[in-house]
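thought: fold this chain, then report.
action: predict
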Amino acid sequence: MSNKVAGSAVKDGYKNVKVYLQGQPAWINAGNRVYASKDNITNEKIILIDLRSRKKSVAGRIARSVSIPYGSLDDRLADIPKKAPVVLYSDNTEEVSEALEDLRDEGYKKVALVAGNYAGWVKSEKVKHE
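observation:
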């Protein structure tokens, strides 16, 4: 991650922050994950994908997210623009990790995750309102 992004990450409370002088592409090539900031998720033009079952998505989801259950992600790749920033979340760490790798393997360059998945988002929203 770049110096600017690292500063934002520290400000957001992350403790194990590493800076790659070559920026995010080097970070990703080193096998690291990228996490979207709360501001990015709530205010930026992104494609936010809920990988949980439709039933779980209907019961509660992050605003602006689109429900694409992990099992149907391959069938929906044509619906996701490759140049758009994509942010993924689920309630299953293994599935979201596999989805991240699947999208990267398909040529998506701007793929990030919601820190803590859906449960992490819900927890951060509760803290925000207390």
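thought: worth noting. The chain has two domains: 1-32, 33-129.
final: tokens above.
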